[in-house]
Amino acid sequence: MPKANRNGQAIVLSEKQREEVWAELHYSHRLIFQICYFTAARIGEVVQLRGEDLFETHLIYRAMNTKTKRTRGVAIAPPLAKLLKEAELPATGYLFPGRATGHITTRACDKALRETLDYLGIRGAATHSFRRSLLTWLHFEKGCSLRTLQKITDHADIGNLARYLDIDQQEADEALRSAWD
Predict the structure, then answer these.
(1) Where are the domains of the chain?
(2) Whole-angstrom Cα Rg for the chain
(3) d(CA 14, CA 35)
(4) Which CATH number does 15-130 carry?
(5) 171: confidence class by pLDDT, cuts 50, 70, 90
(6) Which residues are CB-contacts of 117 (< 8 A; sequence separation ≥ 6)?
(7) Distance of alpha carbon 96 from its chain centroid, rounded?
(8) DSSP calls for the chain
(9) Nearest C-alpha neighbor of 107 from the set 29, 13, 51, 36
(10) Which long-range contacts (CB under 8 A, 24 or more apart) does 149-157 make?
């Protein structure tokens, strides 16, 4: 069931949809959601990133900013490395400062994303769509195991992680039919 009025699960975005969304978003919001995608992170983790959390090959999500309350290091994929290199991000303090103090809020990012999605006519997507999209792509297109994805996301329960992956009934039926070909 796609997400509607904060109920249900955020849809997985196709590559075309992601590119359309990123093209419409303001630069800082675009980079935030690109980080969400390329590191399979939650929006709340990304907005709290600091310059001190960014290294040449990894970025660190601090324990106090993660849902699991465990520090998580994530490799920086080549496309993200290019984006980060081009960005003029601060070396210290929040990467995405707020208007007055602190960091940009998840609410501001969510609002910008919802306005963009409405403009593009994309229904059922949310901030979590970027996390689900990467995990689904890694599993089904790149053949990454659930255990590998679990290491990336730091999910405690592999069953919860499996629910992130987008597979429809037609694909499941086809898998069973073609298994003995």
Answers:
(1) 15-130
(2) 17
(3) 17
(4) 1.10.443.10
(5) low
(6) 21, 123, 125
(7) 16
(8) -B-BTTBSBPPPPPHHHHHHHHHHS-HHHHHHHHHHHHHT--HHHHHT-BGGGB-SSEEEE-GGGSTTSS-EEEE--HHHHHHHHHS---SSSBSSB-SSSSB--HHHHHHHHHHHHHHHT--S--TTHHHHHHHHHHHHTT---HHHHHHHHT-S-HHHHHTTS---HHHHHHHHHHTT-
(9) 29
(10) 149/40, 152/40, 152/74, 153/40, 154/66, 154/68, 154/70, 154/72, 156/68
**Closest CA relative to residue 122, chosen from 1, 32, 6, 10:** 10
Our CA angle for 106, 14, 158, nearest 5°, is 70
Contact (Cβ atoms closer than 8 angstroms) between residue 141 and residue 149: no
What share of the chain in percent tops pLDDT 90?
Answer: 73
Q: Which of the four pLDDT bands, split at 50, 70 and 90, describes residue 1?
A: very low
Assigned token pair, 128:
């979590």
CA distance 127 to 139: 20
Other CB atoms within a 10 A radius of the CB of residue 12 amount to 24
> How would residue 174 be classed by pLDDT, with cut points 50, 70 and 90?
confident
Please, are residues 59 and 76 in contact by the beta-carbon 8 Å criterion? yes
